[in-house]
Automatic annotation (TrEMBL):
Source species: Oncorhynchus mykiss
The keyword Cell division is annotated on this UniProt entry: no
Biological processes annotated in GO: exocyst localization; exocytosis; protein transport
Record Pfam families: Sec6 (PF06046)
Complex formation: The exocyst complex is composed of EXOC1, EXOC2, EXOC3, EXOC4, EXOC5, EXOC6, EXOC7 and EXOC8. Interacts with EXOC3L1. Interacts with BIRC6/bruce. Interacts with MYRIP. Interacts with SLC6A9.
This protein's name: Exocyst complex component 3
Length: 763
């Protein structure tokens, strides 16, 4: 039909909806009065839209009609084809029924054809049958001369003649074993030729790596022979499925045997790489692994560049050899892992297995990685075996490092008793070689562990730090024993002070070395419980060392300290001058102690000197008889306090508030002695107590006793008043009087005296 004449059915409901929609559109266009001027313009636009929609609708309907017309035409053609096929099938069925009788009449012809085939085979092999001995001899010579292709051709002729005769005999009478054995015996030498040829083939394959470099055509000939045999095997197997007959020694499966020989060759090459034993060379493991690496890399490069060209592509030669070498190496390293390995041998093996094997030095070599994906290779060692080796290494390493540290400490102890001073570093600080030896040992083992993997490296470092803590405890014990040996005879060792300084400085070196190792080998440097223990032990060792040195100083000062606050001191002695000179002399040596230990030691020495001075006061070695003695004694105390202050300012190179406060305690006590008006004594003592709130009742009693002019009533009144108004000790400053004790006898007698005074007052 003509598209222009297409008529559309009318639907009342649809018309109503269309009219309603049109009314809405018109109402929307004419909402304002000024839009009436555009009515004609709106009409033309809507007319254009309507024409466009009608044109598209007509085109769509025309397209559908064309499709329907085409479909009907194809259906008519298909119907005609089906009828033609039905007629052809009916004709074929009719002809087949008519030919059944004809096929049955051709049975005699079929038998004649079979007989003709057998006779033809016999005639064809007749020449070979009579010349079998000659061919066998020629073939044997060719095999011995390594003319393998020609020998195999003659062997195939002999086998073909034998197999054809046996096949025809089988077809004629499969149960006639006599004739079958007769043929087999006549061709008996053929099997021997086949075996001899096979031996030559396997020999060539066993030397494949050398043959492919020297004479690749020989290897190609071997592969061609094996491929021929594979085709014959497949043909014989197919005939067996059809006829049930297969010649003797078939299938030969030489291709399968070839891969077995190659696998054995690879295994032998890997196993034969061990040239030395542990007894002959301590580095036998390293040498073995290096030889293995070189063999594997060289052989695989030869396979890629030369041997692949000698085998058919479908052999996937490189992948096959890669798997053979990988399996052979895996077996070998598992055998090595099962041996009783030492710690360094375990590390060498694991480093090689986990890192070297897949590196650019071996399987990741640029000449090889283009042939396979190295990440898809199976691990050489099962993870269980790796874990067992790591565990064994940790046990051995723990035992070894304990012995190494003990030996290092014993060596260092011997140095402590030398008559020469220890070495000094570039800054002049005394030190021994112990920290360097210990951390060189740690560094070497961590570098070795890092070759295995990051996790194991961190585990070894943590183990080192754990052993370090135990070692430092022994180090502290040995330092204490060193001090005790010295106290038995202070003349020995001659360089006791210098080596004790070195022990203190070693603690600082140990701290720095530990932090350096942690930064270098640990990803996370957060402090652990073990770190806190090491820090605490090192501080204890250094603190003990400083205390031992101060004890040494005060042993020399003991005689001079005993002269303080005595009659001899009051009349004039050089005790404090000697004390200052001695301290300064010692601290010239102590200047070779590293900070912060040097600073802490100076502060402790300052505090201890002041405490010893105040102890001398509290021991009431002297009781002033009059105001002149009190003034003279107080002036001397103030002068000596200034001497101490000058000395320790010089030693610390700074004038600190704490430095002045310690020495001011002596001056404050002197002011109590210097006071001439006893009625003001309470105020002076109160001032002293307010400055040094850790002072106790027995201290005040001792001071008043040394002053010598305070009555019992005054002492009692001062003590009671101070007890009522005693300031609280905040603990913000270092205590001075806390460690100063008053002799028991003095306190007992004083208490008795005060009790008697109290009874009188009550009466």
């Amino acid at each position: 039909p003509n598209p222009d004449q297409v008529c559309f059915p009318t639907f009342p409901e649809t018309n109503r909806e269309a009219v309603a929609t049109a009314v809405q559109r018109v109402a929307g266009m004419l909402q304002r009065s000024d839009q009436l001027d555009k009515v004609e313009q709106y009409r033309r636009r809507e007319a254009r839209k309507k024409a466009s929609v009608e044109a598209r609708l007509k085109a769509a309907i025309q397209s559908q009609l064309d499709g329907v017309r085409t479909g009907l035409s194809q259906l008519h053609n298909a119907l005609r084809d089906v009828k033609d096929i039905q007629n052809s099938l009916a004709d074929v069925s009719k002809d087949w029924r008519q030919s059944i009788n004809t096929i049955e009449n051709l049975k005699d012809v079929k038998d004649a054809v079979v007989q003709h085939s057998q006779l033809a085979s016999a005639v064809e092999n007749l020449k070979n049958i009579f010349s079998v001995p000659e061919i066998v001899a020629d073939t044997q010579v060719l095999i011995e001369q390594a003319e393998l292709l020609e020998a195999h051709r003659k062997l195939m002729d002999l086998e073909c003649s034998r197999d054809d005769l046996m096949y025809e005999q089988y077809r004629m009478d499969s149960k006639n074993t006599h004739d079958m054995n007769l043929i087999r015996n006549y061709f008996g030498a053929v099997q021997g030729l086949s075996d001899d040829l096979a031996k030559q083939l396997w020999m060539v394959l066993q030397r494949a790596m050398g043959t492919v470099r020297r004479d690749p055509t020989m290897l190609v000939s071997v592969v061609r022979i094996i491929e021929r045999e594979e085709k014959i095997d497949r043909r014989m197997l197919d005939r067996k499925k059809q006829m049930g007959f297969i010649p003797p020694s078939r299938p030969k499966s030489w291709k399968e045997k070839m891969f077995e020989v190659l696998e054995g060759t690879v295994t032998t090459r890997i196993e034969g790489s061990q040239s030395v034993t542990r007894e002959a060379d301590k580095m036998w493991m390293v040498r073995l692994l290096e030889i293995t690496r070189k063999y594997v890399l060289d052989d695989l490069i030869v396979v890629k560049n030369l041997m692949v060209q000698c085998f058919p592509p479908h052999y996937n030669t490189f992948d096959r050899f890669l798997k053979l070498y990988h399996n052979a190496v895996s077996m070998r390293v598992q055998e090595l892992a099962a041996e009783d390995l030492e710690a360094n041998e375990i590390v060498s093996l694991l480093t090689w297995v986990l890192n070297t094997y897949k590196s650019v030095e071996m399987m990741g070599h640029p000449d090889l990685v283009t042939e396979y994906d190295i990440h898809l290779m199976d691990p050489l060692l099962p993870q269980k075996v790796v874990d067992e080796l790591l565990s064994k290494y940790v046990q051995t390493f723990t035992s070894n490092i304990t012995g190494w540290l003990r030996k290092a400490l014993e060596t260092d102890k011997k140095d402590w008793f030398k008559e020469t001073e220890p070495e000094a570093d570039q800054d002049g600080y005394y030190q021994t070689t112990l920290p360097a030896i210990v951390f060189q040992m740690f560094e070497q083992n961590l570098q070795v562990a890092a070759q295995i993997d990051e996790t194991f490296k961190e585990e070894v470092l943590k183990l080192c730090l754990k052993q370090m803590n135990s070692f430092l405890i022994r180090y502290r014990e040995e330092a204490i024993a060193y001090k005790e040996d010295h106290l038995r005879d202070r003349q020995l060792p001659q360089c006791y002070v210098q080596y004790m300084i070195a022990i203190i400085n070693n603690c600082h070196t140990f701290k720095e070395s530990i932090n350096s190792l942690k930064k270098k080998y640990l990803k996370c440097t957060e402090p652990t419980q073990n770190d806190a223990a090491i820090e605490r032990t090192l501080n204890d060792v250094a603190k003990d060392g400083c205390q031992f040195l101060l004890d040494e100083v005060f042993l020399d000062l003991e005689h001079h300290l005993s002269e303080l606050l005595t009659r001899k001191w009051l009349t004039g002695t050089h005790a404090v001058d000697t004390i200052c000179v001695t301290v300064e002399d010692y601290f010239n040596d102590f200047a070779k102690i590293k900070k912060p230990f040097n600073t802490e030691m100076t502060s402790e020495a300052h505090r201890r000197v002041v405490v010893e001075y105040i102890k001398a006061v509290m021991q009431k070695r002297i009781t002033f008889k009059n105001a002149d003695e009190r003034r003279e004694g107080a002036d001397r105390m103030i002068k000596e306090a200034e001497q101490f202050k000058f000395l320790f300012r010089k030693l610390t190179a700074v004038s600190g508030e704490e430095t002045d406060r310690l020495c001011d305690a002596i001056a404050a006590i002197a002011e109590v002695f210097k006071l001439t008006d006893p009625t003001l004594l309470y105020l002076e003592v109160s001032t002293l107590v307010s400055k040094y709130p850790d002072i106790r009742e027995e201290h005040i009693v001792a001071l008043l006793a040394v002053r010598g002019d305070a009555s019992r009533e005054m002492k009692q009144m001062i003590i009671e008043t101070l007890n009522q108004n005693k300031p609280s000790y905040a603990g913000n400053t270092q205590p001075i009087f806390k460690d100063i004790t008053i002799p028991t006898v003095t306190m007992t007698s004083m208490s008795s005296s005060m009790a008697a005074t109290a009874n009188k007052l009550l009466k």
